[in-house]
Design brief:
Length: about 210
Amino acid sequence: MCDHKNGSETCRDNGYCYDGNIQIGPCPACNTLVYLQAAKAAAESTGYYESETDNGTGVELWEKAVKFARKANPTQFNSILTSIGRVNALYVNDPSTSSDELLVKTFVYGEEKSRDEINKLKESWFRDACWDIEDTEGFSLYYDELLAFRKQCEQEWEAEYAMRKAKEEASLHAELEKIGTIGLLRQIKWLEERLDQALERIHKLESQSK
Ligand SMILES: [Zn+2]
């Protein structure tokens, strides 16, 4: 029994999703291989598509399908994706020109990487974590490991940030204790005077330049 649901689409037990009585396509949860095969066929024959609800290149279509299927069937996803092997997805640089040349982006799944390659990837991501490392192309076999690595790093970074904030806060408190409330008021007064002087100077400069 499959309970996959996406908006108004629901899976019937034949492995296909329906919106009312209209068949939408293979179910990503219980018919994942067929779902991905269909997405592969579409991505390899479409440079750019536009529907009522969606648009994008073949490459984007494929990437979306991968994300969706992974979410719908997380336990079997990796082995199914590995069996897909290779996808030559199409794309165009500029969809507004219909004559634009079709380009190909190849995705390779199930490729073994050495420990060294994985560690290098982690290092370069660590220096500039501007993408989700588990989605790195060519590393699909290591998705779980890379996702865990990202979560762990993010946790550590958050803890570091919280600690730094707490330290800043503590040093502010210590400073206040040292100068006392009267000292603080004196500082504010002094700053106010400086601000007034600065405003006056700006005012003068402005009237000169007119
Ligand atoms: Zn299903």
